[in-house]
Write a structure and sequence with these properties.
heterodimer, A: alpha+beta, 2 domains, 4-stranded antiparallel β-sheet, disordered N terminus, B: about 450 residues, alpha+beta, 5-stranded antiparallel β-sheet, 11 strands, globular
Chain lengths: ~180, ~450
């Protein structure tokens, strides 16, 4: 975005199609333990268990909630496909996101439930900090990575076929043959 | 989030042209005026108010006159700065200032726009539409009288337009299907699966899909029952489009299929989602059926490509599981209309004529409706997992971009897409309610 009109949002740094998104909060006094337990509960929710690969928001690459400074601060850090600021309203009208954020953010300062969208937006934007540096090791979106994983799994299946070497001898197969050796 | 019941729409105060479907077929004229004297400007608004008001109450014969103002127009009328500052930031900036965001670059960039489009000279937009030339002439005469003998006003731009009886535009496709219904408007949805939109998605002063009131300019009398209007003159390169398809198809049928895959509908308007293999003109012309579909049963796009124009512009249920998109926040009323002569059937060489579409949007949220759809869904492919692809028909393609047509056994990839649509200019306007027009006419300097 090249405009200053969206003064209330800070798009942050993008690498290819993906943008970094980090929120930093102060934990309400004495609520460190309950927040930690809410996060443990989240970790055990279907879709969020390690290996499930099924978070409610399918356009983020990963998400981490970090309690630090003796559980007085909370960071939420993620990578989002697309400019996250364009989707601000969407996050807060899409059911799963709202419910998820509510159980966690009720333990941090500045959060008074979800009275209205403007308040939630203001709350999130006030916690957002653009990264000073951000790098990625691959260029694809979550949708592309998932497709690539499916294609690779299919390719491995083909390689396991007894006739694979013979089939890959056709000149058109050369790029696949180059990837078949290891 | 509180669920506020949508109040009764004040239909008498809402400009009919902003909310309701046009007669079909129709002829029309768009006029842009420049105000050099604010008193004359307010007199114009007073006269236009009377015409719009008369047609609201008495004239349901299919002639409409719609009036809208740019930021500079409101300023020229003497709207106080505090009030001007209360409008949406995008509206205050104007469309030309948003060019880089909107993808209006290269041939489409404002430096190449028709004068005075995109400049501070454009103040008032008047759209006159009628079923037939006689009705148009009558309405246009009223509009002429409205600015006659007012030396502080000049007509700075004029564009005639029309809709063919077939509803088809210059690329040959029936357009204007798939409009959302608006709660309280009395017009039912043409898509049973889609609940009518909350009125506040289209009109200011009513709760929107978030359950809240859209940001509204002040004072309330100015904002209430108004809507933002996006106006864009889009030149279509019809000969280049036809040649592109011809060069990539072996048969006429294949050409039709490739064209349909790019659009998401066959030329008749029949959706690929319902008839993926061949056109079905009966379906295309049936308003009860041609919008009655979704994409959820076709996630990989074998029927309708995920990158097809109509699927991008309105993904329906295709993104329901993404968890980050609420498609109802990105709907809009579209009033596209044709200008310029149609390129005769079969002609592959450009005849030099200016033809295309006058794109008109009406909605309460410039940024999350028009600008979101344009930037995230038409100009980009991140949301469909194809960041390198843009809308094959209306996207800012540059001769290097491509388009994937899912197909068994092997997908087809179209390469080297040139731009088929060039922006000739446009502006963001505000179409006020009738009380607001009266307020504008009575401003005291």
């Amino acid at each position: 975005m090249t405009t200053s009109s969206t003064a209330s949002s800070h798009p942050g740094i993008s690498v290819g199609p993906t943008s970094e998104f980090s929120l930093f909060f102060r934990v309400k006094p004495g609520q460190g333990p309950s927040l930690r337990s809410a996060l443990e509960e989240l970790q055990n929710t279907e879709g969020y268990r390690p290996g499930d690969y099924g978070m409610a928001i399918q356009t983020i690459h990963e998400a981490r909630f970090v309690l630090f400074d003796e559980d007085t601060r909370l960071a939420f850090i993620t990578s989002f496909d697309g400019p996250w600021d364009a989707y601000m309203e969407d996050f807060f009208t899409s059911g799963p996101t709202l419910a998820l954020f509510d159980v966690i953010f009720r333990h941090v300062e500045g959060y008074d439930g979800l009275p209205d969208l403007a308040a939630v937006k203001a709350f999130v934007l006030s916690a957002e900090q653009a990264a000073a540096a951000y790098a990625r090791n691959y260029g694809g979106t979550v949708k592309e990575i998932r497709k690539a994983e499916r294609v690779n799994a299919a390719f491995q299946q083909v390689l396991d076929h007894p006739a694979a070497a013979e089939l890959l001898e056709h000149p058109a197969m050369q790029p696949l043959l180059d990837e078949a050796g290891d | 989030m509180t669920d506020v019941a949508s109040p009764h729409l004040e239909l008498d105060d809402i400009q009919a042209g902003a909310l309701f479907e046009r007669p079909s077929p129709y002829v029309g004229t768009y006029l842009l005026l420049h105000i050099t004297d604010s008193a004359d400007g307010r007199e114009l608004v007073r006269r236009l108010h009377r015409i719009v008001s008369d047609s609201q109450t008495s004239d349901r014969t299919g002639t409409t006159l719609t009036v809208a103002f740019s930021y500079h127009g409101l300023r020229a009328l003497g709207v106080p700065q505090e009030s001007l500052d209360s409008f949406a930031p995008e509206f205050r900036e104007g469309m030309a200032a948003r060019a880089a965001v909107l993808g209006d670059v290269g041939e489409s960039s404002p430096e190449h726009w028709e004068r005075p489009l995109g400049s501070a000279e454009v103040h008032v937009a008047v759209a006159v539409l009628s079923r037939d030339p006689a009705g148009l002439e009558e309405a246009a005469e009223k509009a002429r009288q409205a600015h006659a003998e007012l030396p502080g006003l000049q007509v700075v731009w004029r564009q005639d337009c029309y809709q063919l009886p077939t509803g088809r535009t210059s690329f040959g496709f029936k357009d204007g299907i798939g409009q959302p219904a608006v709660e309280g408007s009395g017009r039912p949805s043409t898509r049973p699966q889609e609940q009518p939109l909350k009125a506040g998605e289209i009109l200011l002063g009513y709760p929107d899909e978030t359950g809240e009131l859209p940001p509204m300019p002040t004072p309330q009398v100015l904002g209430r029952n108004g809507t933002y209007v996006v106006f864009r003159k889009l030149h279509t390169k019809v000969a280049a489009y036809r040649r592109y398809l011809r060069e990539r198809a072996r048969t006429h049928d294949e050409e039709e299929l490739l064209g349909a895959k790019m659009v998401g509908r066959w030329q008749s308007g029949a959706p690929l989602a319902l008839t993926p293999d061949r056109d079905d003109p009966g379906l295309g012309g049936d308003a009860r059926r041609n919008n009655d579909f979704g994409f959820a049963d076709d996630p990989r796009g074998f029927k309708c490509p995920v990158g097809a124009h109509a699927r991008r512009a309105n993904p329906r249920d295709a993104l329901d599981h993404d968890g980050s998109v609420d498609v109802r926040l990105h709907r809009m009323i579209r009033r596209g209309t044709s200008y310029g002569p149609m390129l005769p059937r079969g002609v592959l060489e450009d005849d030099g004529a200016d033809r295309g579409i006058l794109f008109v949007f009406a909605g309460a949220h410039l940024k999350r409706q028009f600008e979101f759809v344009k930037t995230q869904w038409l100009n980009d492919g991140i949301f469909i997992g194809a960041p390198a692809e843009k809308d094959p028909l209306v996207g800012p393609n540059d001769g290097t971009t491509g388009f994937t047509v899912p197909r068994r056994p092997i997908r087809r990839k179209l390469h080297d897409l040139p731009p088929f649509v060039v922006t000739r200019g446009g502006e963001y306007f505000f179409a006020p309610g009738l009380n607001a027009m009266r307020w504008l006419a009575e401003l005291t300097p």
